[in-house]
Specification:
Blueprint lengths: L1 E2 L9 E7 L8 E3 L6 E2 L10 E3 L1
Antiparallel strand pairs: 1-4, 2-3, 2-5
Amino acid sequence: MTIDDGLHQAGQTLTCLYSTDSGQISQEVIVEPRNGKAVVLTLPAGGFVIYQ
């Protein structure tokens, strides 16, 4: 998923605050320098997540 290039730095981590899959809560993803900045997210079908 592409995220705001100006708000995040490559290598920064984002933490899952909420997910419809409770096993994802507190997991971290790393911001990568792709298409500006991006993270890889895995969502359940019809799922919803909040990262900070």
